[in-house]
Design a protein that fits this description.
mainly alpha, globular
Length: 248
């Protein structure tokens, strides 16, 4: 792959990260598979982290007034704990097993939601037990492969939060999680000039994606927004399962 093709695909991956930070959940999970077309998945995960963090800063400003305080109180400590577990078990955990687990959870959740779509469902309240479980799992899977969105959404979607509150809570939660990953990532695979320069080149793509994502989030009707979230969750989950099956 020549330099132009690399820049195009890497720019697309960075823009996907930005779109997710702008409020379009699950889109960012496509970034690692895209970069894995021309580099190792481990290197892709490490190189994308600065892009996530910089996009987070824009997302924090965009959603500074839209978030669920109670959910962040529950999810943030659990998510940081999940990152710590991911770091301590990095040499023991199989990426394939984690991908299959995430994929099956996502598919199961979406199919169950569709099964109940014609039945009126009362919004679920924020619960400490469920929040600690899914928040911890989200932090863990985010550490493994930036794939923390499915567990997070399994917990938060049943609460039927307003669209902007859902997007803002996601943005703030993952901003903290990504900062928590910075030290462990550097310890496992130190950042060098090549990785930092590669990330620097991609920053404009990510920032543009963040602004576009925020614009689209505000323009899409609430009902369609959550339908697209579910479809995105299903597509990513199926992709993870297919990847695992193909590697067997």
């Amino acid at each position: 792959m020549d330099d132009l093709q690399y820049l195009i695909w890497a720019g697309v991956a960075a823009a996907m990260v930005g779109l997710s930070k702008g409020g379009l959940p699950t889109v960012g999970m496509l970034s690692v598979p895209i970069l894995s077309l021309f580099m190792s998945p481990v290197k892709a995960v490490v190189m994308l982290l600065p892009i996530y963090i910089i996009s987070d800063m824009v997302g924090l400003w965009l959603y500074r007034k839209n978030f669920s305080v109670i959910n962040l109180k529950i999810l943030v400590p659990a998510g940081v704990g999940g990152v710590l577990v991911g770091w301590l078990t990095a040499a023991l955990v199989s990426d394939m097993a984690v991908k299959m687990m995430i994929g099956l959870m996502g598919v199961g959740f979406v199919l169950n939601a569709w099964r109940k779509r014609n039945t009126a469902q009362a919004p679920s309240p924020a619960r400490w037990g469920k929040g600690l479980l899914w928040g911890g799992l989200s932090g863990f899977t985010s550490f493994i492969s930036h794939a923390g969105a499915p567990p997070f959404q399994v917990y938060l979607l049943p609460q039927q939060l307003p669209k902007l509150v859902f997007a803002g809570t996601s943005t703030l939660f993952f901003a903290v999680i990504n900062l928590a990953k910075l030290g462990p990532y550097h310890a496992l695979q130190p950042y060098g000039p090549a990785e930092l320069m590669g990330a620097l080149v991609l920053i404009p793509f990510a920032l543009l994606g963040t602004v576009v994502g925020a614009y689209l989030t505000r323009k899409i009707a609430d009902d369609w927004f959550f339908k697209w979230v579910q479809l995105g969750l299903l597509a990513i989950s199926v992709k993870l399962i297919v990847d695992v099956m193909g590697a067997m």
